[in-house]
Amino acid sequence: MRISGNTIFIPGATSGIGLALAERLHEAGNTVIVGGRRRELLDEIAAQHPGIDTVRIDTTDAASIRAAASEVIARHPHLNVLVTMAGIMRLEDWTTSAGFLESAEDTVTTNILGPIRLIGAFIEQLRRQPDATIMTVSSGLAFAPLRVTPSYNASKAAIHMLSESLRLQLAGTSVRVVELEPPSVATDLLPGQRGSAFAMPLDDFADEVMRILRDDPDVTEVQVERVKFLRYGEARGDYATVVATLNAHDPHAAA
Q1: How do the residues of the chain divide into helix, strand and coil, expressed in percent and rounded to 5?
Q2: pTM for the complete prediction?
């Protein structure tokens, strides 16, 4: 993925990782469109960052995705990058159905169906461009499980395999697939995570991601150094140690 000269849509970017990357990608010379559910946050972003466009989108709603896609493409006919950023993470107790069922269904809808529907809404637009990218967002927890977030772990493992599969299907086309794999980052993804001692500072994470994209435009998995402990446990042969270490800490140890 080129570091500049793109037109990029990032749904789910009104805060956290999405907004931090949107700001940096805009500063790097890209046209950036931020998507989110709350109009007041979108208006605030537009006011604070002149040149960043905004569109309302609810990635849990198929009709909202279709409407937002039509609006974005109409306003930005050269759109060539989609970042499927929106996602949720919840603590769950799978010992009773009341402890997880509703949460699990919401997680699957947001974290798996959301990206699938987004890709479906934009794939033809992307394929019309001479150089295009789909950036998916998985997690270090796609590769090592946090005990208290089963549905989140599973959803991000699904996004990892979806990314691998899409890369095979789109080989030979103008569309590349890049998977962003965050470690725990100091955001509000879980209550208390912003202040967790185990979370990577948001600015440090976003800056390292931008350096990776700048230095290796052909990268397929964007991995900051801190996520490699989780990503490569099986390959190193210390997976059991990784899982034990991950789960010895508080619920915000990785996201």
Answers
A1: 50, 15, 35
A2: 0.95
Angle, helix 114-127 to helix 62-75, in steps of 10 degrees: 30
Give exposure, 166-197, as e/b (b: 16+ Cβ within 10 Å).
bbeebeeeebbbbbbbbbbbbbebbeebeebe
Domains and CATH numbers, the chain: 7-247 (3.40.50.720)
Q: How far is CA 190 from the centre of its chain?
A: 15
Judge contact between 146 and 183, C-beta under 8 A: no
pLDDT at 255 over 70: no
Residue-wise pLDDT tens digits, 59-88: 999 999 999 999 999 999 999 999 999 899
Bridge-based pairing state of the strands 31-36 and 7-11: parallel
By annotation, the residues acting in catalysis are 152
